[in-house]
UniProtKB/TrEMBL annotation:
<dbReference type="Pfam" id="PF11871">
    <property type="entry name" value="DUF3391"/>
</dbReference>
<protein>
    <submittedName>
        <fullName>HD-GYP domain-containing protein</fullName>
    </submittedName>
</protein>
<dbReference type="InterPro" id="IPR003607">
    <property type="entry name" value="HD/PDEase_dom"/>
</dbReference>
<dbReference type="InterPro" id="IPR006675">
    <property type="entry name" value="HDIG_dom"/>
</dbReference>
<dbReference type="InterPro" id="IPR021812">
    <property type="entry name" value="DUF3391"/>
</dbReference>
<feature type="domain" description="HD-GYP">
    <location>
        <begin position="142"/>
        <end position="338"/>
    </location>
</feature>
<dbReference type="InterPro" id="IPR037522">
    <property type="entry name" value="HD_GYP_dom"/>
</dbReference>
<dbReference type="Pfam" id="PF13487">
    <property type="entry name" value="HD_5"/>
</dbReference>
């Protein structure tokens, strides 16, 4: 029997089945486990979570006569109740990126902790908590619905040290945005997000000294890394309720359209649209991110490079949809306007990808910083246009990320 109780009623030995409340307020990545440490109970009570579900068949029950909030006979009943509660508080109303950055930063921070825990558990041989993965994907999906660019841009600002974990979050968000651009049904969008979150799970089986090596991998080391799709697939097969799309993507996200990928060297239509989506999202986040052995490229420059590689590497229609989903000049791209001012893209214009909103802050004519000003290049009558992408390394603006996000470095 499952019982919904107050957190003050928790005792060591109970089996915690689910938290009640928004996923972001949950103090743990895994929601189903035996409470074996009083410190965990203290952590739960210190959070904003006020009620939880316990499974009396897997752990201690309440003392006889103690009041409960409600009782359920099955896990399906609990899942249905939690789904109704979650949907009642979900906020997916469109918002400008500037308004979403603070909220997205919190999701990114919580996601980092959650995915780090997920990989740690995978290394210990534990099965993936599919329920936790779905709730995390829902939070990311809602943020992308409010503003596609905010979370995607912030997730790109990962450090070399946490690349493996934050890469999963970024690919999840990119997959969700791309799935919507392709017109997939919302359940398919969710499946794409879960697949993106789990696509690199097999790297949990790769030795950390190889995964985090600061220099170029040897052929032998790269051969080990190339085993991660199959290892991840094997891990997911141990889960009882894993999305088949995730299984497919985990195994095939390194396949290429011309058949030169791995592990199965699939060609063209032999690869699913989800795996083709993941191939694009995976490469984009990889080349725009700082890695142990290289500095990430500018977002707009990365798209230009990918366009050069697209023949044979990516499915052309999927790549075109990807560009539309993030913009020709993604948020964070440094650009030069025809008026001689330099700015950074802060918002896309859905009707014209060549005319985003740009925050200008530097005059090349005076070689000096200026008071930041937002210019909507799509505004009727606006004569300013982008004439070139600019290399951030050339200009070396130390506060570039703060300019486009509006967030101090300490909050990201």
């Amino acid at each position: 029997m499952l019982k919904r109780i107050g957190v003050q009623q928790l005792t060591v030995g109970m089996y915690l089945k689910e938290f009640c409340g928004p996923w972001l307020e949950h103090p743990f990545w895994r929601s189903s486990f035996v409470l074996s440490d009083a410190k965990d109970i203290a952590t739960i009570r210190a959070s904003s979570v006020r009620e939880v579900w316990i499974d009396c068949a897997k752990g201690l029950d309440l003392p006889p006569g103690e009041a409960v909030v409600s009782v359920a006979e099955s896990e399906a009943q609990v899942d249905a109740e939690l789904a109704v509660a979650a949907n009642s508080v979900r906020d997916t109303a469109r918002a400008p990126s500037a308004a979403e950055f603070t909220r997205a930063a919190k999701i990114v921070a919580n996601s980092r902790q959650a995915v780090t825990s997920m990989f740690a558990e995978a290394r210990m041989g534990r099965t993936v908590d599919t329920g936790g993965a779905r709730r995390l994907v829902d939070e990311i999906s809602d943020s992308v619905s409010r503003s596609a660019g905010a979370l995607i841009s912030l997730a790109r600002l990962k450090t070399a040290d946490d690349y493996t974990y934050m890469h999963s979050v970024a690919v999840c968000a990119l997959m969700i945005a791309l799935a919507r651009q392709l017109g997939l049904a919302e359940e398919e969008v969710r499946s794409a997000g879960i697949a993106g979150l789990l696509h690199d799970l097999g790297k949990a089986a790769i030795p950390l000294d190889i995964l985090n090596k600061p220099g170029k991998l040897t052929d032998a080391e790269f051969a080990i890394v190339k085993t991660h799709p199959e290892k991840g697939h094997e891990m997911l097969l141990q889960s009882s309720d894993i999305d088949p799309v995730a299984l497919d993507v985990v195994l095939h996200h390194h396949e290429k359209d011309d058949g030169s990928g791995y592990p199965k060297r699939l060609r063209g239509a032999a690869t699913s649209v989800y795996a083709k989506m993941a191939a694009v999202c995976d490469v984009y986040d990889a080349i725009t991110s700082n890695r142990p052995y290289k500095t990430g490229w500018d977002p707009a420059e990365s798209l230009r490079k990918m366009a050069e590689w697209s023949t044979g590497h990516f499915d052309p229609l999927v790549f075109q949809a990807f560009v539309k989903s993030i913009g020709i000049y993604p948020i964070g791209s440094l650009v030069l306007l025809n008026c001689g001012r330099i700015g950074v893209v802060i918002e896309q214009n859905e009707k014209s990808l060549l005319h985003p909103q740009v925050k200008v802050f530097f005059s090349t004519r005076h070689a000096a910083r200026m008071l930041p000003e937002v210019v909507n290049l799509a505004r009727p009558g606006c004569r300013q246009t982008i004439i070139s992408r600019e290399d951030p390394a050339k200009w070396n603006f130390p506060d570039l990320n703060e300019i486009w996000s509006g967030l101090p470095a300490s909050s990201r």
